Amino acid sequence: MKSENPIVKKTFDFAIMALQMGKSLQLTKKEFIVSNQCMRSATAIGAMVREAQEAESKQDFIHKLSIGLKEARETNYWIDLLLATQDLNKEEANASYWRKL
After folding, report:
1. CB neighbours of 41 closer than 8 A, spacing ≥ 6?
2. Which stretches of the chain drop beneath a pLDDT of 50?
């Protein structure tokens, strides 16, 4: 039996938390633009990691993971922006906060 890839699982869980965060910001703070961008880039990370699992070559695998890393950096930018504009506080930015919802 093949064990589950922890990176695939963690990026999927991160996408769920990002969606919960974005939806919460849209409902409670009526913040749509940055939260939407954050949700898009955060969900793209896991999509690229999953796509890399079926890469056609080692170069293709590296390329797909590199795109996932770029998406992670973009997500970090959107979270920093939400923190700077006070649409998100540090407790909310902590991923464990969203697991409680």
Report:
1. 71, 72, 74, 75, 78
2. 1
